[in-house]
# Entry
Amino acid sequence: MLRAKGTTALTRPQAIGLRRRLILHHAGDNANVVAFETEAASDGTDNTKGFRRISWWNNAMTPTSRAAVVLATAGLAAMLVASANSQSQTAGEPPSTTFGTSPKLPTPTPGEPPGINFPTLVGWQADEKPRAPDGFDVVPFAAGLDHPRWLHVLPNGDVLVAESRTEKLAGEVPPPLLEGFKRVGGLGPSANRITLLRDADRDGRAEIRETFAANLNQPFGMWLLGDQLYVANTDAVVRFRYRTDDRQVSGPGEKVLDLPAGGYNNHWTRNIVANADGSKIYVSVGSQTNVDEEGLDAKEPRRAAILEVNPDGTGMRIFASGLRNPNGMDWAPGTTTLWTVVNERDLLGDNLVPDFLTSVRNGAFYGWPYSYYGQHEDPRQKGKRPDLVKKAVAPDYALGPHTASLGLRFYRGRAFPEAWRGAFIGQHGSWNRSSPSGYKVIHVPFRDGRPAGPPQDFLTGFLGSPSSVRGRPVGVAELSDGSLLVADDAGSRVWRVRWNR
# Structure
C-alpha cells in the first residue's frame, strides 16, 4: 500500500480512487489538481512509497501549462496506482493489431491518459552493442558524439551528423516531467553543429572527425543539391556552398526559408529532401501542440505539414497537411512517390494512436487534429470540423502507438538479402506509455512500391529493461557499400550494420 508522509496509508482501491479523482478534476471546469511525485520503495514487499505535492493546476494557468500538468498528473497518478500493487501492472508490448496496413484500433479513452514512463539512460558498456538478425554485424562507426540525431551521406562517402537536442520545454513544466526528459538523455544543452565523419581507410569505422558547421539552431535534416548543402534548422532552412572533400563549410550560410518554431509539444525537428531533378525541396514541420485544443496551430498552416518550395526559397506552398509531426522522408525507389513517418497524438490511451508510415499525396489532408488514422474523429475535437474529418486520408501503414518513429530509409543497395530491402525505420521510443514501445529499428517489407507484410525487428537491444535504456535510435542512412548507419542520440554513437555472409 501507499503512505503519504505524515498521512494515512492508501490501499490499492484508495489509490485507484485517487487516480480517478485526479483525472476527473483535470477534465473539470473549476477544479484544482494536485500532482504527486513518488519516491523509491522503502522495502521490497509492500512497495510503500512516500509522495509529496509538487504542483497545482487551476483555471488561472495557460492552456500550455495545463497541457503539461495533464501529462505529469496523469502519469504520476498512474504511478501511484501501479505502486499499490505487489506486482508490476503494465500494458505490455503494443498489440500486433496496431501495426500494418489494416490496424484494428481500440476505443479512445481521453479520460484515462497513459502513464509517464521515462527509462533511465545507462549507456552502452564497452562490450555491448545492438542486436541484429543472424548474418548481420554491428559495429560502432563513431562514438563520443553529442546527441547525434540525423545523418546524410555525401557522394564521396563522408557522413554528416547533425548533433542537436531539446534545449527546453515551453510553459510551466512540472519538475517530474523535466527530470524524466533529462533522465532519458533528451533534454539539455544542444551542440547545434554538424560533424563530418570520414572512413578514409574503409575499415568500417570513421577515424577522421571534424566540425563541419557550427553555431546552428537545432539542426536536423540535411540535403546536398548540386553544390549547395541545405540544412533544416528548427526556425529556418539555410544553405552552404560545398565542394567535394570539404571538411568544413567555407563561409556563412544563406537563409533560404523561414520556418515556424516553438511550442510546448517540442516538435522542433525539421527534415528536408529534394526531388529527383532538384526542382523542388520538401520540408517537414511538426505541430506546436498535442491536438490543438488551444487553437494555436490553426493560426499557422505551415505547422503539422510538409512544405514544398523552390531551391531558392520562393514559391512555398503546403504540399500535405494534417500530419502531426512528420520526420523521416524518403522517395520509394523506382518511383516519384514521397513517403514519411509521422508521430501521432497522445492522451487517448496506451494503444492509441499508432504512429504511421505513409505515402504523401499532393494536397492531401491526413486528419490532425480533428481525426486520426483516417476518419476516426478525435473526441477532443468532436463536431468542430466535420468537413475536414470527411476528407481525411488514411495512412498506409501503422507503426504502433507512441513508438516515436523518426528515421526512414528505403534500402537501395544489393548487399542485404532480398528479404531485407524494404524500408528501415528508427523508433526513438516512448515516454508516454505505461510500458515502453519502440526503442529499435524496424524493417517494413515492400513489394511493387507498397508495404507487403508485418514489421520485422532489425536492430534491438537499446532498451535494457522497462526502466533502463542504453540508447535511442533516430536517423538511418545507407553507405555506398550497402551497409546501414543508425544514429543513436542517447547512446552518443553512430552504428554500422553490414551483411557478413
Notes: The chain has four helices and 36 strands. The CA atoms of residues 129 and 421 lie 23 Å apart.
